[in-house]
Write a structure and sequence with these properties.
Elements (H helix, E strand, L loop, with lengths): L1 E5 L3 E3 L12 H11 L2 E7 H8 L13 H12 L1 E5 L11 E4 L3 H10 L4 E4 L3 H9 L5 E7 L7 E2 L10 E8 L5 E7 L4
Parallel strand pairs: 1-7, 3-4, 3-6, 4-5
Antiparallel strand pairs: 2-8, 7-10, 9-10
Helix pairs in contact: 1-3
């Protein structure tokens, strides 16, 4: 999971606002290194629709940035998995829809050979996966802001999950990336 989070633990404002997230070339480069290690992207429906409305053609736009070109190329090549009950049965290029049996289906995907499965954003999907203890790594981009309320990162966990800090990276913007592994993954 690769997620921006406020210092007080929110991933979006009360109405889904993300204008507080600090992004720049340094963070884009860092995120690009993570996408290079993944050949599958997992999204919730809302995040998938947002990503799919931009990334397939982002590299083709006049004045496309280095990040837009790199991420668009990755997005178009990577297998996308969408957790959604409303998109059930949708036939989308290079995209799998999981509408039921989430735990079993994600467990099967994790057993497939390949690189990493990367989750960008998608708080509802992340909540579902955390409730079933299906997230092995947490890459938290902690932004220097207190939102006071909004959509929490950690919600309705069924049990304690012990984590071990693997790396930290401080950015000039004040954002700090904390990478954690589940203790059982070490």
């Amino acid at each position: 999971m690769f997620m921006h989070v406020s210092l007080d633990g929110f991933v979006a404002g009360p109405n889904g606002e993300m204008d507080w997230i600090n992004v720049n070339e340094e963070l884009f480069e860092y995120a690009g290194n993570q996408t290079d290690q993944a050949d599958m992207a997992l999204y919730g429906r809302v995040t998938y629709q947002m990503m799919d409305s931009y990334w397939p053609t982002a590299a083709d736009q006049p004045g496309a940035s280095k990040h837009d070109i790199q991420h668009s190329t990755w997005y178009n090549q990577v297998v996308k998995v969408v957790l959604s009950k409303t998109m059930k049965g949708a036939d989308l290029k290079n995209t799998r829809i999981i509408s039921e049996n989430v735990t079993e289906e994600i467990s099967k995907l994790k057993q497939e050979t390949g690189k990493n499965i990367l989750i960008f954003g998608s708080p509802t999907a992340v909540h579902t996966l955390m409730q079933e203890n299906l997230i092995d790594e947490f890459w938290l981009l902690v932004n220097p802001v207190l939102l006071a309320n909004g959509i929490p990162l950690f919600k309705d966990l069924k049990s304690m999950v012990k984590l071990r800090l693997a790396t930290t990276k401080a950015f000039a913007s004040g954002v700090v990336c904390l990478q954690y592994y589940k203790e059982t993954e070490l």
